[in-house]
Amino acid sequence: MSSVVFLRAVNVGGTNRCQPALIAKQLARFGVVNIGAVGTFVVREDVSESVLRAAFARKLPFKCEIMICPARDIIELTSKDPFSGEPSGPTITRFVSVAAKPFRARPRSEVSRTSNLKPQTSQLPPLPLSLPSEDDWLLKVIAIQGRFVLGVYRREMKAISYLGKIEKLLGVAATTRNWNTIQKVVKVLNEG
Question: How far is the C-alpha of 187 from the C-alpha of 192, rounded, in Å?
Fold first, then answer.
């Protein structure tokens, strides 16, 4: 089964610098195809997640989160139009954040009651989630599907800071890609 590998916080500013095209070449035995410059790869061969994770970690001169998803999950994500009815245009970016693990509802036994408020039975916030506010949003989360957080943000510097707040709010590490990158991944998967 093919996989898709996402490296977190690679080639952002001057930190965690690497050459994804070179990594893909070095891992050619796994059928690795590089997608862009920020650490997104299609792996065409059937390789276990542990072997793949170790192979990528050995090629990086720094430690980083490595998210590995079955190709079928990415294809399923793009099979519908999740952004239908959402704002679009040159000032809006559609994005997908890939979490290190799938989100899950917590069983009632794990829910602690610290106030007279109804206990939250899930770590997921109600959607859509608009930051900083519904009326003046810079980032809007529109859906959470498995380990994928889908949303839109305005192309303003302040909007980027809200991507980090998603991680804190959901309590899990994530890496973000433009929807166009996800579509390129699917195109490569369909070619192979």
Answer: 9
